[in-house]
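ok so dumb question maybe but i'm new to this and my supervisor (M.) told me to 'just get the structure for non-specific serine/threonine protein kinase' and walked off. so i did the thing. is this what she meant?? sequence i used:
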Amino acid sequence: LRYRSDFEEIEMLGEGGFGSVVKARNRLDGSTYAIKIIPFDVSFPSYSAKVVREVTLLGSLNHPHIVRYYQAWTEHETKKTRQSQNNQSTTDASTETGDHVLYIQMEYCPRASLRHLIRDGSLRIQMIWRILREILDALAYIHQNGIIHRDLKPENILLDKDLQVKLADFGLSTAVGAAPNSMGSLPPAAAHGHKPELTSAVGTSLYVAPEVDAGSRYDDKADMYSLGVTLFEMCYAFGSMHERYVAIPALRESLAFPQDFDSEAYKGPKKIVQDLLAHDPAKRPTAQALLLSSDLPAKAEDEFIREA
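this is what came out, is it supposed to look like this??
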């Protein structure tokens, strides 16, 4: 088996309904990667073929704020092999019953996600502007390449060792068996084409755009709505999860900000949140338009130095 022979698992990075992600060292080049491991139903071979094609497409993208996708492949893996993998099992997969597994080899980001920065309260206004600009830069790039993320949220915005944004998890697991209208932890399949319009209701409920939630046709403006919710979370510290699940729906419904939201300190981000959360997609700015607008302050000197 290719995965077992080429990679040494170091630690589990995360698990969910879609499968798991592990940190692994490649035995051939010694580099560390994140490997997404997704069991799939062999009775739907088109799913795995589709996701491999999508990984190939994503692998062709080259942007400093997008996680690199290197390759994807499928294997037939036995339960016995999986359980004893760390012991270098030599189980013959052809004689055992087990799962068919999709492996996706991706760039490993050693720092946590944006969600961790939000939770620990370490975000200051200048960092918020920088992170927002980097997210917009990545979104503008994928949208210009005909790709819609469709599951944009703090958990899918990773950070490298220098705290630079790395947009991740383009929702490949839906292509291997997730329900087309899943609103939970299962991320959707990436879509591509020229200005694509899609109809499946996918994404995570607090972030999904109204038109997606309604099953209507949508395009890359759906990502911009999700960014609006994400930006709001970057500017407001929730006292509890309950407060979060009350405040965000209120914001989505009528743009009602919490009474204690600091509108003076976050005047600029608040306006952008209001623009991005417009129920009419036509009224939301595109990523490229927002990047070029006066709503974003000029880059700080350290950003120019870092880019140079």
